[in-house]
Amino acid sequence: GKSYTMMGTPDDPGLIPRACQELFARMASNTDECVTYSVETSYLEIYNEKVRDLLNPRSQGNLKVREHPVLGPYVEDLSKLVVSSFEDINLLMDEGNKSRTVASTNMNSTSSRSHAVFSIIFTQRTTVPNSDLSSEMVSKISLVDLAGSERADSTGATGARLKEGANINKSLT
Questions:
Q1: Environment class of residue 145 by beta-carbon count within 10 Å: exposed (0-12), middle (13-18) or buried (19+)?
Q2: pLDDT, one tens digit for every residue, the chain (173 residues)
Q3: Using CA atoms, how far apart are residues 141 and 143, in angstroms rounded to an integer?
Q4: Are the C-beta atoms of residues 92 and 56 closer than 8 Å to each other?
Q5: What is the pTM of this model?
Q6: Residue 86: what are its φ and ψ, rounded to 5°?
Q7: How far apart are the C-alpha atoms of 82 and 41, rounded to whole Å?
Q8: Rounded to whole angstroms, how far apart are CA atoms 19 and 3?
């Protein structure tokens, strides 16, 4: 399903780990001494209309989404961690995945019950030789794993699981 495509398994990595691996491989292949890179990452889930930081174990799921006039929407107090290798980012991905909200349904024994957004903030700095001049380019990549959205009658959902299912699609608006 969607989570398998995005995350995969240790033997068959999904889109997110492969993109991260390629990013660090390309950074390592750079031979231009005037170009340096930095990478930061954040990982959040939206579950029952609440935003939670998956990289902060103390996050209780009540972070606020705000709108910056220039940069657009952002999540207040969301952790942004600096990583220096694929191994670093892969470890954070694994820790975040362990914190995700999953549940069993008739359709899937480990159905994702939350949307997850894994963000990579990539910065490339270029210095001009023999001067104090430099430039910086910043890119933000947000990779989204949508929650399982099976039909309620197919999943056998009742009670809290039924309410949860209704909120899955609501949080996309």
A1: buried
A2: 888 899 999 899 999 999 999 999 999 999 999 999 999 999 999 988 899 999 998 888 789 999 999 988 899 999 999 999 999 999 999 999 988 876 544 444 455 778 999 999 999 999 999 888 999 999 999 999 988 765 555 545 566 656 656 665 666 65
A3: 6
A4: no
A5: 0.82
A6: -60, -35
A7: 7
A8: 15
